[in-house]
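Bug report (template v2)

What were you trying to do?
Predict the complex of my protein with 2-phosphoglycolic acid.

What happened?
Run completed; filing so the output is reviewed.

Input:
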Amino acid sequence: MIPAMRPVIVAGNWKMHTTPHDAGELAVTIARRTHEPDVVRVLCPPYVCLAPVRDALAADPAGQDVGVGAQNVHDHLAGAYTGEVSAPMLRGLATWVIVGHSERRRDAHETDEHINAKVRRALEEGLRVILCVGEQLDEREDGHAETVVDRQIRRDLEGVELSHQRAAEGTWLTVAYEPVWAIGTGRTARGDDAARMAGTIRAALGDLGLPGGGDLTPVLYGGSVTSASIDEFLAEPSIDGALVGGASLKPDEMAGIVARAALTARARREATPPG
Ligand code: PGA
């Protein structure tokens, strides 16, 4: 089975929380509590906290392998776009970026076309992309969840190019399946629903011609993930970790989530044939 080759990733989306004054300390506390070399850890603070988080992590032995990500990026390199931040501006500050989060689709009216342009730009500029997709509650209740997510993947990634080498590294393009009704609500999807959706996502990635036919692309679950709910998702071989919102601000929660993720990562490593 291919999952043995995919990394296990826990990414924290701090949303509009923390300040430049306190973000670095929180990042280091989390780094120390989640020191698991088998798990890819990423923290995504607000733009203004990127530099303090980067500096605090770099200065602490436990922080040096924690990735730093932005929560958004503009699709143009520069220009008259008041309040926006471009990929070149993130150079040296972030190595990852979240694109297409449902809060940006909702609040900033980001369209799939727009998200597609952002994904391309981010990859071109050397940022690792976490693309978020997910259906609304009414879409799920009407039985359209898979159609909606399939369409998002096709539109957001159409024409996006990923070299085989980047695909094989498994961290350049990650898809986070985040059902909108589960974000910040305390409700989660079921593990088997998330696993089915991971299959839908990978089938669309395969149709788009991404290297490995989607099998090399990590798929995370997101939406009210906590240390108590993570097990259900990581028990599914097709789910490769989590994008964590509210719980990512709590070191105890992150410690529990990453410890569980490490079990999956080690099991996959042991299942991978040598060579
Ligand atoms: P939540 O957020 O864990 O607070 O539900 C997840 C996300 O929006 O990425």
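What did the reviewer find?
Residues 78 and 86 are 6 Å apart (CA to CA). The domain at 8-270 is CATH 3.20.20.70 (TIM Barrel).
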